[in-house]
Amino acid sequence: MKILSGCGSIFALMTALWMGSDLLLAGEVQRCPPTSTNTVEPADQPGLVLAEGPEPVAVRLTAPFDLPWSLAFLPDGSFLVTERPGRLQHVRPGSENREVSGTPQVLHDKHGGLLDIAVDPDFAANGLVYMSYLQGNLTSSTMRVMRAHYDEQNEALAEQKVIFEGTPGPTTDQIGGRIVVTNDGYLFLTLGDRWDRTRPQNLADHGGKIVRIRTDGTLPEDNPFRMRVDAQDEIWSYGHRNPQGLTLDRTTGQLWEIEHGNRGGDELNIIERGKNFGWPIATYSTEDDESPIGTKEIPGTIQPVHYWVPLSIAPSGLAVETRGAKTTVWLGSLSRQMVVKLTLAGNCVVREKDFLKGQLGRIRDIRIDPSGTVYLLPENGALYRLEHSLDDDDEGPDKRRL
């Protein structure tokens, strides 16, 4: 069990449920006061106590992978899976995995290597894929995004082109690396602060930012800092620490992000153009000795939708789906080795469930395919599909699909 506070009050909960559909349809992001999960579960703290609920079944589809980091869906129902040492695998469940040639040379150290992969929305016509990766050396490395044409018949990448390169950093930790590609031809990328707290508030530096480019690598004219001489043109939002999840809700058009705090303060955010998400001047994180970092709220910074305190869950991977007035958020946890499911109404968290604790190890990525099925990619080297347990009637009549 855990305790959810903030919007978990009965009044706020009922208000969110009543207003849900209007909030989702509003032109601007409507925000509840941020909710939080107490990760040490004190028995005497007031709040909405949430039961764990029935466990879903994780069905193993294929293995092995070496430090898998991301997966993407191809139109024929197969998958592309990245491995951090620099390999890309084409996966058809029931068949042997096939390695794809033509991947870029990567810096594989700590968090670095071959990271995310995204398939172009018009892949059936253009065959394009996008990959993020760290390159350079142990004292100076950059995050790149490469676009390539995937030749499935020959299992090869061709026509490779680097379409983005971030400002360099001296470490291979806290690097971000998540990609989202939109139907209208934009690409978003997360970049971590590399343990340097001066970077996220410095608009002349890509560190601690989410950037936005076109999928051909050109700069959109409407990027928020495009005309500022003291800012990087690609920046879309700033004040981030280490964003390890990024996804687009295809129903609402909202861009969602999760990021690691220092000690506690992991955040779930709805990203908006040009906004400051606070790190390190406004955060629920603390130092390792539990002393505060900055303050919890500063005018001009954006509050998270939800956060975890006093200890971190180290979130990684993010999937969001909206049906009617209800939004479901799925995310993985590295340190707690579990799957987290948040239910929202009107962008306000009203319920949380944790699944599969300690059963699959560190959950690195989580995705929802076009049919609504949830897939997990833990670091244990296998790919899983989630199915409902037979006694879980929480989600309606379709009890096999999550």
Task: Give your account of this protein's structure.
The protein is built from two helices and 27 strands. The chain has 402 residues and is mostly beta strands. It has a single domain, classed as TolB, C-terminal domain (Neuraminidase, 6 Propeller), CATH 2.120.10. Strands 3-1-2-20-19-18-17 form a seven-stranded mixed β-sheet, with no helix packed on it. The longest helix has 16 residues, at 10-25.
Write the layout of secondary structure elements.
Layout: E1 2-5, H1 10-25, E2 35-38, E3 48-50, E4 57-62, E5 68-73, E6 79-83, E7 87-91, E8 98-100, E9 114-119, H2 123-126, E10 128-136, E11 141-151, E12 156-165, E13 176-181, E14 186-191, E15 209-214, E16 235-238, E17 242-248, E18 255-260, E19 266-271, E20 306-309, E21 315-323, E22 326-333, E23 338-345, E24 348-355, E25 363-368, E26 374-378, E27 383-387
Parallel strand pairs: 2-20
Antiparallel strand pairs: 1-2, 1-3, 4-27, 5-6, 6-7, 7-8, 9-10, 10-11, 11-12, 13-14, 14-15, 15-16, 17-18, 18-19, 19-20, 21-22, 22-23, 23-24, 25-26, 26-27
Largest sheet: 7 strands, mixed
The count of strands amounts to: 27
Low-confidence stretches: 7-27, 43-51, 390-402
Tell me the span between the first and last alpha carbons: 21 Å
Radius of gyration: 20 Å
